[in-house]
Amino acid sequence: MVNICCIGAGYVGGPTMAVIALKCPSVKVVVVDIAVSRINAWNSDQLPIYEPGLDEVVKQCRGKNLFFSTDVEKHVREADIVFVSVNTPTKTRGLGAGKAADLTYWESAARMIADVAVSDKIVVEKSTVPVKTAEAIEKILTHNSKGIKFQILSNPEFLAEGTAIQDLFNPDRVLIGGRETPGGQKAVQELKNVYAQWVPEDRILTTNLWSAELSKLAANAFLAQRISSVNAMSALCEATGANVSQVAHAVGKDTRIGPKFLNASVGFGGSCFQKDILNLVYICECNGLHEVANYWKQVIKINDYQKSRFVNRVVSSMFNTVSGKKVAVLGFAFKKDTGDTRETPAIDVCKGLVGDKALLSIFDPQVTEEQVMRDLAMRKFDWDHPAHLQPMSPTATKEVSVCWDAYEATKDAHAVCILTEWEEFKSLDYKKIFDGMRKPAFVFDGRNVVDVDKLREIGFIVYSIGKPLDPWLKDMPALA
Q1: Whole-prediction pTM
Q2: What GO terms are given for molecular function (predicted)?
């Protein structure tokens, strides 16, 4: 029986290992983490993350060939293959602050593996890491090896939150990078044998280490670039009376471009896009490629511009002030079908509105009040450090309340901002919402989920990203 151990029980490690356990019943899989509360949650009926389909997979395998434990060293010692899926946050101080990845947790994991290992091991990079991380990890392991052989592989994840389980069941590709040595290629084959139990062979790609590491950063940068491209067009659509949905549909019909990731919105979020692009920028700068670095920086700039443009549109439309006005925020997660709030555009939008003294009432079907308050209290990049290093009991912001119902959130509000594209927001009783709001009643749709014409018939003044402007809004231009 092959023994697999994964260090890190987060959004990547938990679901990935659960699916490996389901698809490979002859493999023993143990997920380890030093966070006791997180491991307890994985062993309970209330998993620590929300992901459609994850519950069923975990319950099928847990206690059979899938285990969650805080005894990190024991299970690393017993493993043949060790996946490392720890945080790689953006550095907040020192060399490369604000751009470079902080490899503190990776390095300590590598040193611990070297300390406890009593047999040869394959060590697999699963978290997103900068190019050449494997080289650094290799040095730590070989200099502390005590005669034990380690092979380092890069096996980046390409999961989309909200569809992670389906992505794992039926991946576009599995990428495995290894050293081009006999030992490196043997290790690649061993990991390939695990995935080959359910992934067609032509979808398992093998490359050298550096190509695998860079492919992950490149994939996320390309996806984020598409979102920033359509968001840049959305601003032009509003200025000219074009409709960004029609433009995106026409553009996406070109088979060279395709329709995916062309939905205009208030901006992209999630744990990877901004972090990986900043990382890419830093690597380019370190290699003297300043024009390339500036190109990728612009993707982030457009994303920040889109969020501030949205806030400015809200404030300028409401007589240039939201001071003391109740603004309902529907959706706080960075996308539908996940409770993840890392880098969600909602944080910057809410902070912008609170900065103008708005009173916010927030509703999201999967995000807790504690999480909302923590996110609004946290400094940039702190979210990516382990929970015990984050603010434990965030101070409640008196301008912010969290509701458990969209109708409660919108009652007596002057405006509604839709910041996550949850399906349920499409079918709300907007007539009921309108009747309970102050007039004029505004809807600012940051995800293009509502039927603009229907809402205008009810009486709302509607702003929808990249759509022809309401006559009211034309008279009140947003200053960017």
Answers
A1: 0.88
A2: NAD binding; UDP-glucose 6-dehydrogenase activity
